C-alpha cells in the first residue's frame, strides 16, 4: 500500500545544501539517500536513488518547469512567456519530438569534430594569458569566455561578437530564476537583440552557407519539413543558453576536482589519452547540473510514496551519481576505474530531454583539460574558492589556482 506524500516521513533538505562546495554537497546527498529514497523541502520533493532518477527521466508524467516558474511570478503572456514556450527543454510531446529531430540531425560527430581545432586555439589563448604567472582565477580567466567562443563558431557568428553573446546568455538565464521581478525589461531587451541578430545572420547564411550548424539548420529538411524563422531563432537561443553556463561551470568543477586530487592530475599529465575518462569521471563526481527540476502532471509513485500531481520534483543527479548500488566506491575520483557495462553518469540527464549538446560539451571539456594538464603542472588551489548557490547550474564563483612554472 503506497503512502501519501503528506503522511510520508522524509528527511528534510537543509539550507547547508544550498551554499557550499562539492564535498559537503556530496556528503549531504549521501546522508539523505542513506536515510530514504526521497527527501523534501517546503515546496520540493527530491528523488535520490539512481534507479528512480534514471526511470523518472524517461517518465512522460513529469515535465520541465519552465513555464510554471514564469506563471508563479505572474508572467502569462508577452515576449518572455512566448520565447520560453519555444525552448526545447520546456516543450513536450510531438512538438518537442519534431523540433529535436530536426536539430539533432545537425549535431553530427563531423560537425563537432570540425570545431576541435578552434576549441584548442580558443582555450590555448586563455592559457597563454596566465601560464607565465603560475596562478589565476579559473572562473573569469579560463572558463568564462571559452564556451561562448565555441557557440559563436558553432553558429558561424564572428568571434569578435562574443561579448554580445555573453551578455545575451547572462540576460536570458535570468528568466529561469524565481526573482525575475525588475529583470523582465532587461531579459526582453536581450531576447529582442538576439532575435534580430540571428535573423540577420540567417539571411547572410542563406546567401553564403558556411561550415557551421546554423547553415546546416537552415538546410535541414526531413520529408519536406523545415525549421521556420521563429524556430531558427529559438534553437540559436537555446544553444546559447543551454551551452554556455553549463559548460563553463562544469569545466571549473572539473578543474577544482583535479586541484584537490593531485594523484589523478598526474595520471592525466602522464597519459593525455585519459582526457575522455577525465571528463566522464569528474562529471560523475560533481555535476554542474545536479538537480533536474520537473513538475508531476499526474500522481506518480516513487519508492512507495505517492507524489501528487502538481508537485515540483528535483531529480538529484549528484545523489544518483554517488549511489553505490550502481557503481563501486562512488566517492573516490579514479580515472582508471572499471566502469560497469552500460553504466553512464546522469549529469547530462536522460530520456527525451537528454542533453543535445553532450558530444559537443564532452569535446570542449576534453580539449580544455588536455591543454591544462600539459600547461599546468602541480595544479593546486591557491586559496579558498567561493561557491554559487546550489540551485540551477552549480559551480565556483571564484577558483584560485596555482601551478609550477617551468
Ligand atoms: C558540461 C556541459 C553541459 C551539461 C552538464 C549539460 C547538461 C544538460 C542536462 C542535464 C540537460 C537535460 C535537462 C533536464 O532534463 O532537465 C540538458 C539539455 C540540453 N542541453 Fe545540455 N549540458 C551541457 C552542455 C550543452 C551544450 C554545449 C549544448 C549546446 C550547444 C547543450 C544543449 C542542450 C539542449 C538544447 C538541451 C535541451 C534538450 C531537449 O530538451 O531536448 N548543452 N543539458
Walk me through this protein's architecture:
The longest helix is centred in the middle third of the chain and has 31 residues, at 229-259. The chain has helices spanning 22-35, 50-57, 66-72, 79-85, 93-104, 109-113, 116-130, 138-143, 146-155, 162-173, 184-207, 213-219, 229-259, 262-270, 275-285, 317-321, 358-375; strands at residues 3-4, 38-40, 44-47, 62-63, 135-137, 291-296, 300-302, 305-307, 312-316, 380-381, 386-387, 396-398, 400-402. Helix 7 runs parallel beside helix 17 (358-375) and helix 15 packs across helix 17 (358-375). Helices cover 50% and strands 10% of the residues. The radius of gyration is 21 Å and the shape is globular. It has one domain (3-335, 342-402): Cytochrome p450 (Orthogonal Bundle). It is of the alpha+beta class and 406 residues long. It is built from 17 helices and 13 strands. It has a five-stranded mixed beta sheet with strand order 2-3-9-6-4, sandwiched between helices. It has a three-stranded mixed beta sheet with strand order 1-8-7, with no helix packed on it. The chain has a three-stranded antiparallel beta sheet with strand order 5-13-10. Protoporphyrin IX containing FE (HEM) is lined by residues 64, 88-89, 100, 238-239, 242-243, 246-247, 250, 288-289, 292, 347-349, 353, 355-357, 360-361.
Amino acid at each position: 500500500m503506497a503512502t501519501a506524500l503528506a503522511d510520508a516521513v522524509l528527511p528534510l533538505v537543509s539550507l547547508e545544501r544550498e551554499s557550499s562546495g562539492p564535498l559537503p554537497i556530496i556528503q549531504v546527498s549521501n546522508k539523505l539517500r542513506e536515510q530514504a529514497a526521497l527527501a523534501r523541502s517546503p515546496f520540493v520533493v527530491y528523488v535520490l536513488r539512481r534507479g528512480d532518477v534514471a526511470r523518472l527521466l524517461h517518465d512522460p508524467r513529469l515535465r520541465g518547469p519552465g513555464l510554471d516558474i514564469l506563471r508563479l511570478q505572474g508572467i502569462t503572456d508577452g515576449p518572455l512567456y512566448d520565447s520560453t514556450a519555444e525552448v526545447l527543454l520546456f516543450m513536450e510531446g510531438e512538438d518537442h519530438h519534431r523540433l529535436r529531430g530536426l536539430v539533432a540531425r545537425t549535431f553530427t560527430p563531423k560537425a563537432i569534430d570540425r570545431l576541435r581545432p578552434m576549441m584548442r586555439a580558443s582555450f590555448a589563448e586563455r592559457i597563454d594569458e596566465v601560464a607565465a604567472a603560475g596562478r589565476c582565477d579559473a572562473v573569469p580567466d579560463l572558463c568564462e569566455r571559452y564556451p561562448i567562443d565555441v557557440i559563436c563558431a558553432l553558429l558561424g557568428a564572428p568571434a569578435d561578437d562574443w561579448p554580445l553573446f555573453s551578455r545575451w546568455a547572462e540576460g536570458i538565464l535570468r528568466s529561469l530564476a524565481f526573482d525575475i521581478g525588475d529583470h523582465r525589461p532587461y531579459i526582453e531587451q536581450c531576447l529582442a537583440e538576439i532575435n534580430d541578430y540571428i535573423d540577420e545572420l540567417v539571411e547572410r547564411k542563406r546567401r553564403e552557407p558556411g561550415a557551421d550548424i546554423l547553415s546546416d539548420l537552415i538546410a535541414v529538411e526531413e520529408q519536406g519539413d523545415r525549421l521556420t524563422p521563429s524556430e531558427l531563432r529559438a534553437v540559436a537561443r537555446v544553444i546559447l543558453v543551454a551551452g554556455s553556463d553549463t559548460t563553463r561551470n562544469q569545466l571549473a568543477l572539473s578543474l577544482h576536482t583535479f586541484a584537490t586530487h593531485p594523484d589523478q592530475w598526474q595520471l592525466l599529465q602522464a597519459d593525455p589519452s585519459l582526457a575522455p575518462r577525465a571528463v566522464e569521471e569528474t562529471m560523475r563526481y560533481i555535476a554542474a547540473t545536479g538537480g533536474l527540476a520537473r513538475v508531476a502532471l499526474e500522481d506518480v509513485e516513487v519508492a512507495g510514496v505517492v507524489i501528487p500531481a502538481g508537485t515540483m520534483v528535483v531529480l538529484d543527479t549528484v545523489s544518483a551519481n554517488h549511489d553505490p548500488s550502481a557503481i563501486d566506491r562512488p566517492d573516490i575520483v579514479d580515472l582508471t576505474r572499471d566502469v560497469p557495462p552500460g553504466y553512464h553518469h546522469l549529469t547530462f540527464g536522460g530520456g527525451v530531454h537528454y542533453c543535445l549538446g553532450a558530444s559537443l560539451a564532452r569535446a570542449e571539456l576534453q580539449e580544455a583539460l588536455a591543454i591544462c594538464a600539459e600547461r599546468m603542472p602541480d595544479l593546486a588551489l591557491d586559496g579558498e574558492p567561493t561557491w554559487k548557490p546550489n540551485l540551477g547550474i552549480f559551480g565556483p564563483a571564484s577558483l584560485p589556482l596555482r601551478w609550477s612554472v617551468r
